[in-house]
Amino acid sequence: KMAFVVKCAPVIKEWNYCCCSCSLRAASIVLAWIALVFNTAEFVTYLLWLVNPPESDLGNINRLDVARFMIGGAVAGIILDSLLLFGIHNKRPAYMLPYLVLCLIGIILYALAILAITVFTIIQSWLAGIIIFLVGCAILAVTTFFWVVLYSYYRQLEDEKNLPVHMVFPNCPEEDYSPPPYPGKTAEAMA
After folding, report:
1. Which one Pfam family would you cite for this protein (predicted)?
2. pLDDT(44) > 90
């Protein structure tokens, strides 16, 4: 069984980058709850929008279709956030995987969208393009940092789960507990 490993992502051991120094577990719980509250608020907002849509000009786009799509996205987010929280609280990294994988894909797509929007905006106005690029990069940096915190906790759980088990034989002399200096070779083969 192979763990989800992103070679280019750093793994941090402790979160010392905010107002307080807290464990990865505590930081992960806070981030997961923030995500769940955000997606729940988004769900309620779009549900209210579906019941009483605001006056806006969306052209040929059906507002009800947009609301249904956004509600579906919010429900998916609530499910992923719930899985993330369940995995964190019960120290079950497999439940964290859907959130981590989809969030990583979202970060990559967001970075590509920032570049595309910046290019199309710079054609119209340099200043607007640069502002969009800088704000987009700041949001991307914060989102990526939060993902790294969650990923680091996932890796910590995987590492704890996959620790080698040492067997102790109480009837053996103390010197037999140490591994041989040349693993895989017997004393007869060394002679």
Report:
1. DUF4728
2. yes
